[in-house]
Amino acid sequence: MILFKNIVLQRKGTDDWRAFLTWAEQDSGMVYELRGYGFAPDEAAKDAWNRFNFNRDAFITDSWKETE
To answer: What is the pLDDT of residues 2-61, one digit of tens each?
Structure first.
């Protein structure tokens, strides 16, 4: 089962936003992150959400084993 964790928005510059979306695989305990990009925070969040729903594995930018 895939568990959505969160989206963190970060401003990189004028009209340059990143959204870092993380999710976990419940069975393996692995956590994954992908990035979305946009000219505004809502665009970056929407881009990340679309990537997550479209083909999350193709857009992974980081991963780690959950220690909780």
So the answer is: 999 999 999 999 999 999 999 999 999 999 999 999 999 999 999 999 999 999 999 999
* Three-state secondary structure call for residue 67: coil
The residue whose two tokens read 């929407």 is: 46
Question: Of 23, 3, 66, 17, whose CA–CA distance to 46 is shortest?
Answer: 17
Core vs surface per residue 43-58: b (16+ CB within 10 A) or e? ebbebbbebbeeeeee
The Cα 48–Cα 18 span in angstroms is: 9
Tell me which residue has tokens 């780690």: 64
Residue 5 CA to residue 53 CA, distance in Å, equals 14
